[in-house]
Amino acid sequence: MSTATRSLTMNMRQYGILLALVAIVVLFQIMTGGLLLAPNNVASLIQQNAYVMILAIGMTMVIIARHIDLSVGSIVAFVGGVVAILMFDYHWAWPLAVVVALLLGVVIGCWQGFWVAYVGVPAFIVTLAGMLIFRGLAIVLVERTVSGLPAGFVDIANGSLPNVLGFVGYYDVVTLVLGAIAIAGVLWAGFTARRKARSAGRELEPLAGFIAKNIIIVGAIGLVSVLLSLSAGGTPIVLVIIGALVLIYTFVMNKTVFGRHIYAVGGNLAAARLSGINTRRVDFMVFVNMGILSALAGIVTTSRAGAAVATAGNMYELDAIAAAFIGGTAVTGGKGKISGAIVGALIMGVLNMGLSIMNVDSAWQQSIKGLVVLLAVAVDLIGSKKAS
């Protein structure tokens, strides 16, 4: 295989998921008569699927490290119940309750990470036990629906950034400015990375593919920015939270020692041990991180609903796992990207919203999402075999 052909194949696998998202959006936009991309629906799409994006980031890191976490949905319910009770029953200020909820996520992550990393119990068993433990605790703790939560807390998942710059016509200027900043950041990062790769003598992706990729990304950001600027609230607060998480975790996975160790441990555990990597510490920290993000998802879920219920977070672990796999994370570990997980979560969200607008029965929605996950994993495995 020539260098050009090999590079083209690699990039088709890398960006094919992005093209799939565009195709699914176009398909549902046509099938829903233009309702999918109505401004308020776009804002709702982000707010309703924020929990999937948050959990998918952590789940991608867990799967890259060759593990799985089945407990995240139960942790969402448990932490959501704790934060709601602290605010409603004990009258805590909501920022303090949020901090305590995140610290609780750290404790839960340490608990599960200890059993996986230092006792050697498989993550599947540990998190299966965690799924039962924390769901049971949620049921015991949240005996009733806990509602009437503070407005500031509810705004985390339902509110929007204040419109301090006014409007241009019907367009929210704050949203347009943020979109322009995001586009500039994407272009700067892409061209900087390409320039560094050229200077280091590394193989570059074809220029046509690089330009096409950036056109798609810039176009998507621009379209979303314009649509959100026309929505009732403008930029959702939760979108800013997700954007910050994507930047932080992309940096962690690509630019830090810890991120490189996660890829090394997932790619070849024996080689990682021989190279001196503390694999137990890596496994432990991966689950601590998952605990924090699960707690954050619990906060967002409770904020979105404006109440805590014991059944919250049901099947969330499957949504997160599906988003990670659809986004290109390898089943065998060692490969995956945070950006891919976000795209996978968006695909899940578009499927949910599009099928709901079309009044497709929820049972069929589950079946369709299951088929999409199966096809995504099959494509990844077939592509890996061809590459090898």
Short description:
With 388 residues, the protein is mostly helical.
List the helices and strands and how they pair.
Blueprint: H1 3-31, H2 39-48, H3 50-64, H4 72-88, H5 94-119, H6 123-141, E1 146-147, H7 151-158, E2 167-168, E3 171-172, H8 173-199, H9 207-229, H10 237-255, H11 257-267, H12 269-274, H13 279-305, E4 307-308, H14 316-326, H15 338-357, H16 362-387
Antiparallel strand pairs: 1-4, 2-3
Uncertain runs are 1-8
Structural class: mainly alpha
- Helix coverage percent of residues? over 70%
The string of secondary-structure elements, in order, is HHHHHHEHEEHHHHHHEHHH
- Identify the strand order in the major beta sheet: 1-4
Mean pLDDT: 91
Q: Mind describing the biggest β-sheet?
A: 2 strands, antiparallel
Proportion of residues in β-strands: under 5%
Principal-axis shape: globular
The value of Rg in angstroms is 21 Å
> Kindly, what is the distance between the CA atoms of the first and last residues, rounded to a whole number of angstroms?
11 Å
- Report the total helices: 16
E-strand count = 4
What do you see in this structure?
With about 400 residues, this protein is mainly alpha-helical. It has 16 helices and 4 strands. It has helices spanning about 5-30, 40-50, 50-65, 70-90, 95-120, 125-140, 150-160, 175-200, 205-230, 235-255, 255-265, 270-275, 280-305, 315-325, 340-355, 360-385, and strands spanning about 145, 165-170, 170, 305-310. The strands form 2 sheets. The chain has a two-stranded antiparallel sheet. A two-stranded antiparallel ribbon has the order 2-3. Strand 2 (about 165-170) and strand 3 (about 170) form a beta hairpin. Helix 4 (about 70-90) runs antiparallel to helix 5, helix 7 crosses helix 13 (about 280-305) and helix 10 crosses helix 11 (about 255-265). The chain is globular, with a radius of gyration of 21 Å.
